[in-house]
Amino acid sequence: MDSITPNIIAEHGLSAEEYDKILDILGRPPNLTELGVFSVMWSEHCSYKSSKKWLKTLPTEGPRVICGPGENAGVVDIGDGLAAIFKMESHNHPSFIEPYQGAATGVGGILRDVFTMGARPIANMNALRFGRPGHPKTRHLVSGVVAGIGGYGNCVGVPTVGGECEFHESYDGNILVNAMTVGIARSDRIFYSAATGAGNSVVYVGSKTGRDGIHGATMASAEFNDDSEEKRPTVQVGDPFTEKLLIEACLELMETDCIVAIQDMGAAGLTSSSFEMASKGGVGVELDLDAVPAREAGMTAYEFLLSESQERMLMVLKPGSEETARKVFDKWELDFAVVGHLTDSGRMVVKMNGAVEADLPIDPLALASPEYDRPWVPSSPLPEIAAADVTPPESLMGALKTILGAPDMCSKRWIWEQYDHLVMSDTVIRPGGDAALVRVQDTEKGLAITTDCTPRYCQADPLEGGRQAVAEAWRNITAIGAVPLAITDNMNFGNPERPTIMGQFVGAIEGISEACNALEFPVVSGNVSFYNETAGEAILPTPAIGAIGLIEDCATAVGIGFRDEGAAIILIGDTAGHLGQSIYLRDIEGREEGAPPPVDLAAERANGDFVRRLIQDGAASACHDLSDGGLLVALAEMALADGIGACIEDHSGDLPPHAWAYGEDQGRYLVTAQDAGPVLSAAIAAGVTALVIGRTVGDALTFAGETAAIDELRRIFEAWLPGYMGAA
Amino acid sequence: MKSAVIVFPGSNRERDMVMALRAAFGAAPAEVWHTETQLPETDLIVIPGGFSYGDYLRAGCMAAQSPVIRAVHEAAEKGVAVLGVCNGFQVLCETGLLPGALMRNAGLKFICKDVHLRVENPASVFLGGYRAGDVMRVPVAHHDGNYFADTETLDKLEGEGLVAVRYCDAGGKVTDEANPNGSQRSIAGIYNDKLNVLGMMPHPEDAVEELTCGTGGKALFDGVAAALAGAA
Predict the structure, then answer these.
(1) Which of A365, A502, A668, B8 could form a disulfide with A573 if both were Cys (CB 3.0 to 4.6 A apart)?
(2) Residues of A in contact with B111 (CB under 8 A)
């Protein structure tokens, strides 16, 4: 037996205190295999030891919630016996080390989380954040990540219907790749992971186990340093073809009555899945590693247990159903092996070549994993920036052209045209709008899907930024006419052992909680990614919010594009001209300063409910929420979408014109209607601010006396990303 | 009037195709698993899009060796209509039912977007719903759609009216800018000599509904249904 030295303990990412706890639990020193199991199960990635305390404070219940956090994904009732199952998850560290495979396996992993529960995946999304464009690695990372997401999603045949992509120097050494999958299941056929029934077979299906990805979870729980390139062997390799077969085989088996419990083998592979299943069901498990399909000979127990080979699932079957199940996997030409059985011992016993390689008590290891109350300090508030203290541009339209041609605000067509966003024939609203809309097969219903976060707001004020991320997601769902249902949160932060970082996390959680409560928008799944920092430089706090909404009839949805000429353009919500942390301040003035715009959740709710009703009543022909870049950028996006222009009068009133044009006040929408009268009276009745600011007309955008042709704006809007990526 | 859709491991647009056929034919097609050696009685065989066998060796290459392909060959020789879309077109080229090959897109990237197609020769069971010169708007979604054949083959295709559809702009003009993948002579779809086999890269099956991708491809399915009903 190998002796466990302090060095080996440290290499496994375990603290001295944690090792003492292991000795307590076992009453003896662990062997190397057992130590490896503790290492991954207690890694930040698997145990949420730094975040658990705070995650518990999030609102997770609501009338439509069937299953909240704790399972593979969240489940929400969408009526007529159907449920939407969704989650967003990060694959940040692997994507930085090996962008194609890191991003591809991120998509594969989140797909498995969703179909594990019985859902057919119907849409993928992704939220990407890269370093500054001038950083020598950025172009390579964008290219690899986008190709990886496309390569996987396109092959499995699930449409990738949108997302976001931003650039900032804080991500130079730690990019963010957050992938989200949404699926549909029958609400009486949801599959869970709790293993029950001593004696029941434990079955392994999917790809064979190789040596790839060993210690991926541990790697994702540490900061990067200059040796990070050497961590490439910890990144898994994806096989979307096998994933496609696995989806079909699992869904086919789920039509039968064979499955007691099912769980994908994600981070920490066989260890994590068997522990979680046994722990949730209060049973023990005995595994025979000789039965595990292996890609190569000579693998050790340590390697079998810690491999993160992709496209694998673990199931517990009902007695006597093994042959029925085997036939399904034979048809799809996938490995199928009975690798063990459940016991009533409460222990996980792992055997190989007749010897016991690990014998661990399940509950102390899985449930009693460490939980830390890490010290934190709140972020210091930044001063408000008065609009009068921000230099006006020489020309409002000139500033618009600069903003539309800049990395964050330009068209991301170069990215989403590499994703098959149409397969399955149910994509109603394609990428590039507020939320994507995907019809639920064989119904008129649709799911609205979006991902949102404004990291520069979160950096300036984590609490306000947390509120804003949720509010913007809620607004984007609303802007197509859908009812917001629930969110998944993907919390990307730096090193939680630093009180300032932990303070950002705590603030963001608090903001998210407040917004979720005010907007009745519960959190049903999520993921935490800490240690996104390199050489002490952390990323901007990035609590990415993935959200879904429901529309009963897809035909009633509206897009952002102006639909017809002569329509009144109506601004909903109050404009205060807030320029602190705005795109204008950053991209025109070069200042990342000030407090972010405050989010008034009551106004947010009132304005959104009003806009949604307008759309559902057929009173609005187009709608767009105001966010990054404010009013003028939103108008330009509406004009660019379908090539219809607008003429907007100056309604700046007491505000400086550039604050009116570029202020990022929250809770606002633009809607169009041929007849503004009824909209304005309804707004008065609802106590909502509504102002007609102009009309749709022609093929140019005129704003407060300045004009730009849509064709010119389009050239600018579409130019930056292909130009950047082509200039290799 | 019956149709059949061949399903390989890795096919992923078979459902899109089944929906389009069901709408046009009034009955769902038979779905035939790749291991079958016999086809059900059918008037139309469709090989749908996707990544058969992951397209790992070469797009369509492994599928062309599947047991069911022999039956497809025999049916084609007897004159049964065979339509291959996207991966289906790649499979038909690999089986030799159609000449040429689909190479990696000229831009080297997967591309998913709407394109316009000009109908070059509507005189087949497939394109009777269009007239020559008609322009249809349908999406493409592929990584390997760059049609290649030697000059002799291309001249023969053009000379004998075997080019079915070409990429063009919204006005029907064939230009380099409108060619999304570098295909030789902007070829998007071709027939075999007897005009009963059509392979095309774009996806008419995804363009049969106003709500989603518009109805640019609907006349293809309605046309096939009408032609086969007339022939029956």
Answers:
(1) A668
(2) 417-418
